Amino acid sequence: MSRVLVTGSAGRLGRSVVATLAAAGHEVIGVDPAPGTPRDAADTLPADLTDPGEAYSVIARFRPGAVVHLAAIAVPFGRTDATTFRVNTQLAFNVCAAAVAFDVPKLVVASSPTVLGYGAPGWTPSYLPLDEDHPTLPWNAYGLSKVVAEETVRTFARAGGGTRTAAFRPCFVVAPEEWEGAPTQSGHSIRERLDRPEIGATSLFNYIDARDAGELVGALLARLPELERNGEVFLAGAGDALAREPLAELVPRFVPQARELAAALTGTAPAFSSAKAGRLLGWTAKRSWRTELA
Questions:
Q1: Are the beta carbons of 215 and 286 closer than 8 angstroms?
Q2: Which residues contact 149 (CB under 8 A, 6 or more apart)?
Q3: Residues 163-180, mean pLDDT to the nearest whole number
Q4: How far does CA 273 lie from the centroid of its chain?
């Protein structure tokens, strides 16, 4: 197994990625200015990766076999738009540039399904379920920053060199402790999101267990050399929706313009398809709110 450097290792997604990769036998290096990186990491380093010099220094110091870039302002509207855009795009560029400059063999960058534009006033999907081919229609600084991050990955892929790259779009990340009642990134509990469907309606009830997302990252690192295209993008979500009612009934209530399209979502089917990850990576989510909720 290889040395994997994980940025944002103390975050709700980063913690599970570190634990999953370490359990698979990788030597994991956590990079995060905040405390909280799991003890599974072989080493940790607080670093400000918005500084190009620090980004290059971190890669030069550890010479990893792979970089998993998760560090970012993680939600829309948590900071000013200017700060969110500047920080997220600078992080993505610096990490990609440093990884490619030092010929890191594998580079995986976290994006977001918000690039598809849901939640915008009057937004109508082109089709359901949503997948990687759906047009990107960002309407806020966070979504725009993630579109730029994906294009940054593709730019470095087009530039050539030996680094194999990919981006992934994890749905609403649920950390293990949040199944027990801890607040989610929206501030609500999972049970509140289920009891009050209007909370999750703007995101079309998407979610993923952080451990499943960690396993997707592991699958990506294993399969990157085999992928036909450098710079692929993968959606990653649970196999169902974070809702007690079928989306064919819920979506028309909150997104009436998508009433006809929602008819394609039968039973517990989610509005986001992870079929590409299943087809190219052999990955499917194992966990559901139906099995994990305390």
A1: yes
A2: 72, 88, 89, 92, 109, 110, 111, 167
A3: 98
A4: 14
Name every residue whose Cβ is closer than 8 Å to that of residue 224 and which is 6 or more positions away in sequence. Answer: 106, 108, 164, 165, 166
CA-CA distance, 147 to 136, in Å (whole number)?
A: 8
Q: Are 62 and 100 in contact (CB under 8 A)?
A: no
Q: What is the mean pLDDT of the chain?
A: 97
Q: pTM to 2 decimals?
A: 0.97
Q: Is there a contact between 236 and 213 (Cβ–Cβ < 8 Å)?
A: yes
- Only one residue has tokens 């293990």, namely 176
Question: Residue 6: helix, strand or coil by DSSP?
Answer: strand
In this structure, the strands spanning 164-170 and 208-209 are: unpaired
Q: How far from the centroid of its chain's Cα atoms is residue 147's Cα?
A: 12
CA separation for the pair 277, 216 (Å, rounded) = 8
pLDDT (0 to 100) of residue 1: 64
Q: Are 12 and 36 in contact (CB under 8 A)?
A: no
Are residues 146 and 157 in contact, defined by beta-carbon separation less than 8 angstroms? no
Query: Look-up: residue for tokens 């900071």?
Result: 79
Complete DSSP assignment for 124-175 = --SSSSB-TTSPP---SHHHHHHHHHHHHHHHHHHT-SS-EEEEEEE-SEE-
Burial of 50 (0-12, 13-18, 19+ CB in 10 A): middle
First to last CA, the chain: 35
β-pair type (43-45, 208-209):
unpaired
pLDDT tens, residue by residue, 193-249: 999 999 999 999 999 999 999 999 999 999 999 999 999 999 999 999 999 999 999
